[in-house]
């Protein structure tokens, strides 16, 4: 039975983290590349503001509305590209009260202006669209709309955009590297329900035909992947939280039928999550829009200032500890994982999804930091070790650039182990904590590359990490520490994909007193005291490597 649960833990973790794009045809691959690449027709303009205004027909599962783009031309231009799922129909595109000509290739839409838009000019156009959006089969790992009902028969609807992007349901420039400075989301639904989106609720409007419009304003920069909505029969309450930068508004939205359970659970779990993460990562990055948690018809997602929550108000992941150690049953996994994404993922965003290890690795390591903050350092380390069996080390955790392709599912747990090793190499935990604060201060609300993050960490830590990052991020296999004892002499070396690999490592013979080595790819030797039992040799478990005892030929 214990083995069954262990396998179940690993299977769940793999399911959670397996966001790989499934097999697609050559035509679809081309469409993915056009959508995921910063093409010249996407690079020539910068989105400043969106106004998304939609009407949802919940019975027929249809969407209709408009998306207004306000943008700045980065060069003289006559054509640009945006994105919209090919199964959604464009009625027209308007510019200065005229209809624009456009063409479509897969999910890419190309529009032509009737005049040259000069560099530095600020313009706007509006896309009117409608159709039947893609339905999610297994959200959040498969993106699309979720049309469901609560236990009382009320509509319970949301969207999952993971790895497919915001363009699966609205017209947008679907790239992580262009965040709109602000976004207004207007949603019209039956008046007996409520609609929630990112940001702050600015107003509501009662309309004819028993309809109501909700207008949500995002005051800070946001990318289209994070733009979301929830519709249902909701209860709402707010609290204030004393955070590192003052009063932070906490906004809670649960189904009415679950409100008593939700309030008890969230009122306890959310403040302690924020306390731990602000300690380790720095001030919450979205003070203007606040923190919001919304019950969703799927297990959860990290949408900015509107985290999706479907963890059934349980500890762990749906009541299960993904590490298999029991430590994860002390806290709500979805709140911590997706809460951490407000720092890494939503505020600090990878320019290309190929570098999404930044989001997923740091947010997974935040689980370790939360366990340490609430249960002690040993508990945090044990939780991290428990995640390792889920790592396959078959593909690199950095994906293919300009192809809308994330790295392997290992980017979660392996990414967390990479960060943990850097902490171990730094020796000083307070210096490491300040490094995390510095990352979130320096790159707040920006889009970055993996190289930028790597260079920042190397510079602030004072460590030579070039070969370390190349081995762990850009190669699949782990470093192998080969060693042998001949009498009381330890012979050792690294076997790696990266030449001249130079990761220092620590070892012990008694489980507590560690000695340090600086192995290379060449064999080296070290004499061991005659009274030492060499059979008790162990590497420091904080290093995620493969120890291999060999016999040299």
Query: What Rg, in angstroms, do the CA atoms define?
Result: 25 Å
Number of helices: 11
> Which descriptor suits the 3D outline?
globular
Distance between the termini: 44 Å
Q: What are the segments in which pLDDT stays under 50 over at least 5 consecutive residues?
A: 1-25
Strand arrangement, largest sheet?
5-4-8-2-1-11-14-13
Find the count of extended strands (DSSP E, 2+ residues). 29
Major β-sheet annotation: 8 strands, mixed
Beta-strand proportion: 25-35%
Mean pLDDT: 93
Helix content: 25-40%
Description:
The protein is an alpha+beta fold and 553 residues long. Helix content is 25%, strand content 33%. The protein has eleven helices and 29 strands. The chain has an eight-stranded mixed beta sheet with strand order 5-4-8-2-1-11-14-13. A five-stranded mixed beta sheet has the order 16-17-18-20-19, covered by helices on one side. A hairpin with a 4-residue loop joins β1 and β2 (62-73). Residues 1-25 have low confidence and may be disordered. Keywords: Aminopeptidase, Hydrolase, Protease, Signal. It holds the Pfam family Peptidase_M1_N. InterPro entries: Aminopeptidase_N-like_N (IPR045357), Aminopeptidase_N-like_N_sf (IPR042097), Peptidase_M1_aminopeptidases (IPR050344), Peptidase_M1_dom (IPR014782), Peptidase_M4/M1_CTD_sf (IPR027268).
